[in-house]
Design a protein that fits this description.
The protein is about 45% helix and about 15% strand. It has helices at about 1-35, 45-50, 55-75, 75-90, 95-110, 140-150, 185-190; strands at about 120-125, 130-140, 150-160, 165-170, 175-180. β1 and β2 form a beta hairpin. The chain is flat and about 65 Å long.
Length: about 230
């Protein structure tokens, strides 16, 4: 009976704990975003106009602000305005370092290029024989390649369980293995300390064919002439 009760208790926790944590996180986020309404003058706040509070209205205001800012930054006038305030922030010693760091990280994360955080890699770290997940951020850094003489890939090695911090590494391409899992699946694996494992797409391949190089489609293997008999 004690074993059954314990099993039922754990099963109930597995159902309600993720739901409760998700509701708590989003309620805190909504409450913080709703505080954006405090930026409005008191006579224009919804509580003053309507007489009651509307939950989530701050989120709508935040989305509208992002859309308007994006529309302005996408045209010529907006780009000039962005360059002007970036130049102003670049003249402030302490603010300059913080702003440039966050701007560079945001550009890498939200970049639409084919190399930025688009590939999940497997590298040997922190020593040969131990492997870690990493994300490709760029390819072919010219000066590093010229100094090392190898084809170099720049990777970001996230820490567990907080993937927002980590290390930037220059790894030779020959020491990198590209994985089939997506970036989202890799992040889930990192955050969960390896508990959440993504399904391996290569599991559908017969064991005898794994790791065997295939000929490109449409190209037949070259014919090898039979050896001629010696006289």
């Amino acid at each position: 009976m004690k074993v059954r009760l314990r099993r039922y208790l754990i099963a109930g926790l597995l159902v309600w704990l993720p739901i409760g944590a998700t509701v708590l996180v989003f309620s805190v986020l909504f409450d913080l975003i709703d505080r954006l309404l405090l930026l409005l003058p008191p006579p224009l706040r919804p509580e003053q106009l309507l007489g009651f509070r509307i939950p989530g209205l701050g989120l709508i205001l935040a989305v509208i602000m992002l859309l308007v800012t994006g529309m302005l930054a996408a045209n010529l006038f907006g780009r000039r305005l962005v360059k002007s305030y970036e130049s102003l922030l670049g003249r402030i010693p302490l603010v300059r370092g913080v702003y440039s760091a966050f701007k560079s990280f945001a550009e890498v994360v939200f970049s639409e290029s084919d190399s930025s955080f688009k590939k999940v890699l497997l590298i040997e770290y922190p020593r040969p024989g131990l492997y870690s997940l990493a994300f490709q951020t760029s390819e072919n850094p010219e000066e590093v390649q010229s100094r090392t003489g190898d084809t170099i890939v720049t990777v970001f090695l996230p820490t567990t369980p907080n993937p927002t911090s980590g290390f930037m590494l220059f790894v030779p391409r020959k020491d990198i293995t590209e994985l089939d899992m997506s970036v989202e699946e890799a992040l889930k694996m990192i955050i969960s300390l390896g508990v959440v494992l993504p399904p391996w797409r290569g599991a559908q391949i017969p064991p005898g064919n794994r790791g065997v190089a295939r000929e490109p489609e449409g190209l037949a293997p070259p014919e090898v002439a039979p050896p001629q008999a010696s006289p």
